[in-house]
C-alpha cells in the first residue's frame, strides 16, 4: 500500500517536511560516513539530514543513530531518534523503523512528538499488509497499532487518518473471512462456511462484504435444510440493503426454494 499523501501530511504535522529524491552515494562514501569520528552534534545531525534529503535513506538512518550514540543526552539525540525511525520507514526497513520509534517512546513517552511515533509504528505495519490469500497476522497488528493511535490521541491529525485506515483494515480482514467461507462453501463444508460468514456479520458489519455474507448465509442455510434461517437472513439483507444485487439474488433464491414465503 502506498501512503505518499498521508506521509507528507504526517511530516507537515510533525514539522519535518523533507524532499526525497534519487539515491546517491557509493559504498566507499558510505563507509567513510559511517566510520567512527567524534563530531559535534549539530554537524553530525546536519550530515544525516543531507543524506536524507539526497534520498540516501539507509545511510541517513545510520547517521541519525550515530547522533544518539555519540550525544545521548543532547536534545538533538531525541530528534535524531524520530528521524532515524522515519528514515528506516522511508527505506521500507519496517522492523528497524518500529524499533527506533519504540525506543523513542520508551525514553520520551510524554514528548510532543509521541503521537507521530505511534502513528509511524502503525504505518510500518499497515504498509506490510498482504493480500487476503496470505496470513493476516500483520493486518491484525496494523489494526491494533492504528487503534492505539486513536485511543491515545483521538483529536490529533494522526487519529483522523488512522480512522480511515482502520475501516480499510477491517474491510481487508472481512475479505479474508469471506475467502475462507467461500472455499468451505465450494467444498460442501456448510457449517464451517456459515461460521466464517457469520463472523463477517458479527465483527465487520459495516464493511463492503456484509451484503454478500448475508447472501451466503441464505445459501448455506438452504443447503443444510434450514429454510427458516435462510428467510431470516434474506429479510435482514432486504431491510439493510434494499435494491442491492445480493438482496436481489437472495430474493430469487428464496423464491425458487419457497415461493409461498415471499407472498
A few lines on this structure:
The chain has 263 residues and is mainly α. The protein has helices at residues 4-13, 27-34, 41-53, 57-70, 75-90, 94-107, 114-127, 137-152, 157-186, 190-203, 210-223, 227-240, 245-257.
Per CATH, what is the topology of the largest domain?
Answer: Serine Threonine Protein Phosphatase 5, Tetratricopeptide repeat
- Gyration radius over CA: 25 Å
What is the average of the pLDDT values?
85
The CATH class of the largest domain is identified as Mainly Alpha
- Encode the helix/strand succession as letters: HHHHHHHHHHHHH
- End-to-end Cα distance, whole Å, is 48 Å
How many helical stretches?
13
Q: Note the beta-strand portion.
A: under 5%
| Low-confidence runs | 1-29
Strand element count: 0
Helix content: over 70%
The structural domain count equals 2
Describe the protein.
Helix content is 72%, strand content 0%. By secondary structure, it is an all-alpha fold. Mean pLDDT is 85; it is low at 1-29.
Topology (SSEs and partners):
Blueprint: H1 4-13, H2 27-34, H3 41-53, H4 57-70, H5 75-90, H6 94-107, H7 114-127, H8 137-152, H9 157-186, H10 190-203, H11 210-223, H12 227-240, H13 245-257
Helix pairs in contact: 3-4, 3-5, 4-5, 5-6, 5-7, 6-7, 7-8, 7-9, 8-9, 9-10, 9-11, 10-11, 11-12, 11-13, 12-13
Defining traits:
263 residues; mainly alpha; Serine Threonine Protein Phosphatase 5, Tetratricopeptide repeat; 2 domains; 72% helix
Amino acid at each position: 500500500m502506498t501512503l505518499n499523501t498521508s506521509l507528507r501530511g504526517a511530516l507537515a504535522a510533525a514539522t519535518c517536511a523533507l524532499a526525497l529524491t534519487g539515491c546517491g552515494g557509493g559504498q566507499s562514501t558510505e563507509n567513510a560516513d559511517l566510520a567512527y569520528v567524534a563530531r559535534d552534534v549539530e554537524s553530525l545531525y546536519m550530515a544525516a539530514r543531507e543524506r536524507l534529503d539526497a534520498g540516501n535513506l539507509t545511510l541517513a538512518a545510520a547517521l541519525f543513530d550515530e547522533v544518539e550514540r555519540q550525544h545521548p543526552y543532547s536534545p538533538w539525540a531525541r530528534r535524531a531518534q524520530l528521524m532515524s525511525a522515519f528514515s528506516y520507514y522511508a527505506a521500507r526497513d519496517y522492523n528497524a523503523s518500529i524499533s527506533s520509534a519504540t525506543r523513542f517512546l520508551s525514553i520520551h513517552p510524554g514528548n510532543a512528538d509521541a503521537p507521530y511515533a505511534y502513528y509511524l509504528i502503525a504505518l510500518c505495519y499497515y504498509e506490510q499488509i498482504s493480500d487476503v490469500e496470505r496470513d493476516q497476522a500483520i493486518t491484525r497488528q496494523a489494526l491494533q497499532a492504528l487503534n492505539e493511535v486513536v485511543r491515545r490521541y483521538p483529536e490529533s491529525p494522526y487519529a483522523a487518518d488512522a480512522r480511515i485506515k482502520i475501516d480499510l483494515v477491517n474491510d481487508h480482514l472481512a475479505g479474508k473471512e469471506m475467502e475462507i467461507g467461500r472455499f468451505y462453501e465450494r467444498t460442501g463444508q456448510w457449517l464451517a462456511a456459515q461460521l466464517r460468514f457469520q463472523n463477517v456479520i458479527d465483527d465487520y458489519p459495516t464493511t463492503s462484504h456484509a451484503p454478500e455474507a448475508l447472501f451466503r448465509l441464505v445459501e448455506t442455510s438452504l443447503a443444510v435444510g434450514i429454510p427458516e434461517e435462510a428467510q431470516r437472513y434474506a429479510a435482514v439483507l432486504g431491510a439493510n440493503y434494499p435494491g442491492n444485487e445480493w438482496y436481489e439474488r437472495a430474493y430469487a433464491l428464496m423464491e425458487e426454494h419457497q415461493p409461498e414465503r415471499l407472498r
